[in-house]
Amino acid sequence: MSPNTQTQNPVPTYTKKDFESGVDPRWCPGCGDFSIINQVQKALPNVGVARENIVFISGIGCSSRFPYYMNNYGMHTLHGRAPSFASGLKVSRPELMVWVITGDGDALAIGGNHFIHTMRRNLDIKMLMFNNRIYGLTKGQVSPTSELGKKTKTTPHGSPDYPFNAPALAMGAGATFVARSIDIEGAHMGGVIAEAAKHKGSTFVEIFQNCPVFNDGAYTFLTEKAVKADAILRMEAGKPLLFGKDNKKGIRFDGQKAELEVVTIGENGITEKDILIHDPSRSDPTIAFMLANLSDRPGFPTPIGIFRSVRKPTADEMTWDMIKAAKAKKGDVSLRKFLSDAETWTVK
Prior knowledge:
By secondary structure, the protein is α/β, with parallel strands linked by helices. It has helices at 33-43, 82-92, 104-110, 112-121, 166-173, 186-198, 220-223, 228-231, 286-292, 315-330, 335-340, and strands at residues 54-58, 73-76, 97-103, 125-131, 177-182, 203-208, 232-235, 242-243, 249-254, 259-264, 302-309.
């Protein structure tokens, strides 16, 4: 019997507590990881999957302790290699819901190659990347997402490296679901995680997460009450891309320059009709890619929400279609017969 045809029992009714392992998380007081695991545990009772068919796989880092605190199957694997373990599991057991928990160093430094190919292949794997812009577990070194000029233990004079834009990288690699949230935006994060759970295909969610010990205040430029209305662009499907204290600022597509620009409703004849309507389901990722790059442009807000969500055949689906086709042609033969079908000889 193939994994696609296994009989599924009715899914029990779960609560958040059913996904709590009872092991006290070993994260520093004030760490954003507490908020993230809380939202994941809230979301899982509603995904329609039996607990024993949900797997969390992690690499190395503070975020990678995650599987210990979840009451379902999990693997704590090698540094940067969680996507490889997840890929093997998903292809062999496509009925499982597979999550990868990773950090900015784990995913984008030592694990960068595994990251881009997991996104490219469009395996049905859901990756949550906790981005605190620092190496936390190893005590404060510069990471692939640390900002230009960042002073750390390994860059005492400031980092000369430009940081990765993780959502743009994921889209460039071919991910079919790309989103971003912030650890202190609990309700928003919960909604994004719920949508990620529904998606079929390579799923990437970047979560801005504060490290109170080694990079405290990394996102205050977004999260402080005095600035957040103007600093954050909340993307919602089917709604205009508005922001600001009175929702009077918006994002418009400039057709002549073929780029996005910030405009203000009521100025220079601008009305709400001029504001770009967010549509993450566009088959062409150009606008989503432009939105992902807004946070790198001075004077633009940082988008949170779902950049892109499209459905394409997944690598695991196509693999099992090939297996079915081969079986239909060759028959469901034994391994011994399969191995002996080829050219063989006897050594005397």
